[in-house]
Design a protein that fits this description.
Elements lengths: L1 H8 L1 H4 L3 H6 L3 H44 L4 E3 H7 L4 H13 L8 E3 L4 E3 L25 H17 L4 H23 L4 H26 L6 H27 L2 H20 L11
Helix pairs in contact: 1-4, 5-6, 7-8, 7-9, 8-10, 9-10
């Protein structure tokens, strides 16, 4: 502080030649530098002393704070000390190293970076190993596809037996027969399964749900407005369902039909090329 006061006191003499140096230049700059040198040295020394004194004061406060945090503990985890200061883990390590270098915790203190703790008097316990992850519950093996198909056919047959109406029985029987043929195609040609996914996941389960509802309504033995209307709508929908199931089966043979058409076209062209057809169209 005294150096800064001296620098301020010498400031008028230091800048005495400044106006002439700015206007005339030349040797006035030399005189300005010579006269201001003591002031600059005092100013630099004063600022350096202030920063040094502040650093020493801060370091002492930090040492006292760490000493109070650790207290009589034989060891303490670094992160706990950092949380109590508070500061980052890296800065806390530097503060602790300085304290150890100055002998704050005694001659035997050190940082155990493996256990991430400050050791003052005795070795800390080994870190508890992480518990082994619990084994994931094994998923039950999915039902084989053949069994899934048979279960659906059995459900259709059961609901058909529960409905006495002959017209509905005929439609359900047709639905069951077409479904059996679709399942047969899925078993013999698994490549067709993607074409059946929506049929299996939505249309067929929804159809079964409607038929079960119909059987439940029919079992009530009365023909109230709501029961009659619901049964009537399901009966009307059955024609659409049967046609939709037949279209689904037909679509499974689209690629086969294309192969047949291609084979016929190739054979016709070869027969014409060999002069065996007299240009007559080949008919299967």
């Amino acid at each position: 502080m005294l150096l800064l006061i001296c620098a301020l006191a010498a400031l008028p003499d230091a800048i005495y030649w400044l106006p002439e140096a700015l206007t005339e230049g030349g040797s006035y700059w030399t005189w300005l530098v010579e006269d201001s040198m003591p002031m600059l040295m005092s100013l630099t020394g004063g600022i350096g002393c202030l920063f040094g004194a502040n650093h020493i004061r801060t370091s002492r406060r930090m040492r006292r704070k760490i000493d109070n945090i650790v207290g009589d503990a034989k060891y303490m985890y670094i992160q706990d000390i950092a949380d109590a200061i508070p500061c980052s883990y890296e800065k806390c390590c530097k503060h602790l190293e300085n304290c150890i270098d100055e002998g704050l915790f005694g001659p035997g203190a050190y940082l155990d970076m493996h256990r991430k703790c400050l050791v003052v008097k005795e070795r800390p316990p080994e870190p508890t190993p992480a518990p082994a992850p619990a084994p994931k519950p094994q998923k039950a093996d999915p039902m084989p596809e053949a069994d899934q198909y048979q279960k659906i056919l059995d459900e259709l047959r059961r609901v058909n037996d529960a409905i006495p109406d002959e017209e509905m029985t005929d439609k359900i029987s047709r639905l069951e027969a077409v479904s059996a043929k679709i399942f047969e195609q899925a078993q013999t040609d698994p490549d067709k399964l993607p074409q059946m996914r929506k049929f299996m996941d939505y249309y067929l389960p929804t159809s079964l749900k409607l038929l079960n509802t119909y059987a439940e309504l029919d079992k009530q033995g009365i023909e109230g407005e709501n029961i009659s209307e619901s049964k009537h709508r399901i009966e009307q929908t059955m024609d659409t369902l049967v046609k939709a199931f037949e279209n689904q089966l037909d679509r499974l043979f689209a690629s086969d039909a294309l192969d047949v058409s291609t084979d016929i076209d190739v054979m016709q062209n070869m027969l014409r090329a060999d002069g065996l057809t007299d240009d007559a169209p080949f008919k299967l």
